[in-house]
Amino acid sequence: MMEHKPPSQDPPEQDPPEQDVPEQDVPEPVASEPAAVAAVQPAPAATPEVGAPDTGTPFTGLEAVGLSRSFGDVHAVVNMDLRAPAGQVTALIGPNGAGKTTLLLMLASLLAPDAGTISIMGVDPVKDPAAARAKIGWMPDTLGVWESLTAREILTSMGRFYRLPKAQIPGRVEELLALVNLLPLAEQKARVLSRGQQQRLSLARALIHDPQVLLLDEPASGLDPGSRVALRSILRRLAGEGKAIVVSSHVLAELDEIADGAVFVNQGRTVLAQTVAEADGQGRKYAIAALDPVVLNAALVGLGVEFEAGGGRRDSVTVTLGTQQHAARLLRDLVEAGAGVCAFAPASGALEESYMNMLVEQP
Amino acid sequence: MTLVNKGTPPLPGTPSESPVRQAGLSAYLGGVFAVVGMELRQRLRSRGWYIMLGIWFGLIWLVAALTWISWKAQTNRTDFDYVDPAMLAHGPGSLIFEVVLAFVLLFGLLVGPAFSANAISGDRAGGTLAIMQVTLLRPGQILWGKFLASWVAALAFLVVSVPFLIFGIAQGGLGVGYILIALLMLAIELGVVCALGVGISALANRPLFSIVVTYLAVAALTFGTLIAFGLGSMLSNGTVMANQSYYKDISHQSPEGEGMSGTYQEGYPDRPNPKDITDENDEYACYGPLVENRVIRTERVAWMLSMNPFVVVADAIPYPDPSDRGNQFYSVALFETVSQGARYAQAGPDATYQCANGKVTASYLAPQTPLWPLGLGLQLLVSAGILALAWRALRTPAGKLPKGTRVA
Question: Nearest by CB to B4, which of A108, A147, A230?
Answer without folding.
Answer: A230
